[in-house]
Structures are given as structure tokens and as C-alpha cells.
From TrEMBL:
It comes from the Bacteria. The chain crosses the membrane at residues 20-43, 55-77, 140-163. Residues 54-165 form the Phosphatidic acid phosphatase type 2/haloperoxidase domain. CDD domains: PAP2_BcrC_like (cd03385). This is Undecaprenyl-diphosphatase BcrC. Pfam families: PAP2.
């Protein structure tokens, strides 16, 4: 398995003299696109109704659980990144921590799968899931992840999305009430002006 992992990595990793435009595009997908998740959740919360907000809270819980799961996996089994074993070409800086699974992709796909599993934002979830593919490619192309890290991210994301949705009855009500109270305190003036939903 590790031999295949390294073989596929070298096939997808950037060449010694990569095209500058491809590197720029890959860097955008690898480092900047992830910010679409909190922006999307923030805008959705401000403009959405109660059902949309609850979908967003479950998706947020899914993303957080996915990242927590990754930390536990990393402590139990630390897998080196490609540059830590002198493999391929690394085009962006990254801390030398465990590569498996990919945190970026776990967060992205945890939210995407959570949206797909719930009513209200399924089409957004499908779009996010599809955009996860260039994120996965870019992290390998730029030399900070192996292909197996992406498969691990899919597994963790699916686990997190299913579990947080299945167990939502235990946490969603109290968290929703707390979040709406904080929302009212922070945005009371904008709610009164009609710029933000109550």
C-alpha cells in the first residue's frame, strides 16, 4: 500500500520545473479556497431561516469532529509528509507534522457531506464535494500530502457527517438556542434595520 501511495504521489506531484500558472492555481486551491467554508457558513447563518441555521450548525459540528478525529489519528499513527522523507517537490511551506488524514480536505468534505445528508443545502453540498477534488489534487501537486491522506480524509469526513447528524438530537437544540442568543446580542442593531435575519 505504501509503495502505491508513493507511486501515485510522484505521478501527481509537480515536476522539477512546473508551470507558474498551474502553481498559482494549485496554491489557490490548496491554501485559500478553504476560507470559503467559514464565509459560506457565516453568510448562511446571517441570511438563513431556522432550518438553514440548524443545517449549518450540524455541518459545523461535523467539521470540528472531523478535525478532532484527525488529531487523534495523528497521535496514534504519525505518518510523515512527502518532504519529510525527501520525496518529490514541495512548493509551499508546511509544518512537519503527520500527513494522514488531510485536515483541509477533512474539514471541506465533512461540511460538504453534512450538507448533502440534510435537507436545505444539498445542492451546495454537492458543489462543495466537487470542489474538494481540485483541493485534493493541489495538496498532492504542491508536495504536502500523499494520495492516501485524501482517502483517509474522505473516510473521516463521512464518519463525522453521519455521526453528528445521527446524534443531533442530543446537542442541536441547546447549541441552537445559545447561538441565536449570541446572534441577537451581536447583531441586534442590524436586525432592527432589516439587514440581518432575526
Amino acid at each position: 500500500m505504501e509503495h502505491l501511495n508513493k507511486t501515485f504521489f510522484l505521478w501527481l506531484n509537480a515536476p522539477e520545473h512546473p508551470n507558474a500558472l498551474v502553481v498559482t492555481l494549485a496554491t489557490f486551491f490548496a491554501e485559500w479556497l478553504i476560507w470559503a467554508v467559514p464565509i459560506l457558513i457565516g453568510i448562511g447563518w446571517l441570511r438563513g431561516n431556522e432550518n438553514t441555521r440548524k443545517v449549518l450548525l450540524v455541518a459545523t459540528a461535523s467539521g470540528l469532529l472531523g478535525l478532532l478525529t484527525n488529531q487523534i489519528i495523528g497521535m496514534a499513527w504519525s505518518h510523515p509528509r512527502p518532504f519529510m522523507v525527501g520525496l518529490g517537490h514541495t512548493l509551499i511551506p508546511h509544518v512537519a507534522d503527520s500527513s494522514f488524514p488531510s485536515d483541509h480536505l477533512t474539514l471541506w468534505w465533512s461540511v460538504a457531506i453534512s450538507f448533502v445528508l440534510q435537507r436545505g443545502l444539498r445542492s451546495v453540498g454537492v458543489a462543495l464535494a466537487l470542489f474538494g477534488l481540485p483541493i485534493a489534487w493541489s495538496r498532492i501537486y504542491l508536495g504536502v500530502h500523499f494520495p492516501l491522506d485524501m482517502l483517509g480524509a474522505i473516510a473521516v469526513a463521512a464518519f463525522s457527517a453521519v455521526l453528528t447528524l445521527h446524534e443531533a438530537r442530543w446537542y442541536l437544540g441547546p447549541i441552537y438556542r445559545l447561538a441565536t442568543r449570541i446572534h441577537s446580542l451581536l447583531f441586534g442593531r442590524l436586525i432592527a434595520l432589516g439587514w440581518v435575519r432575526e
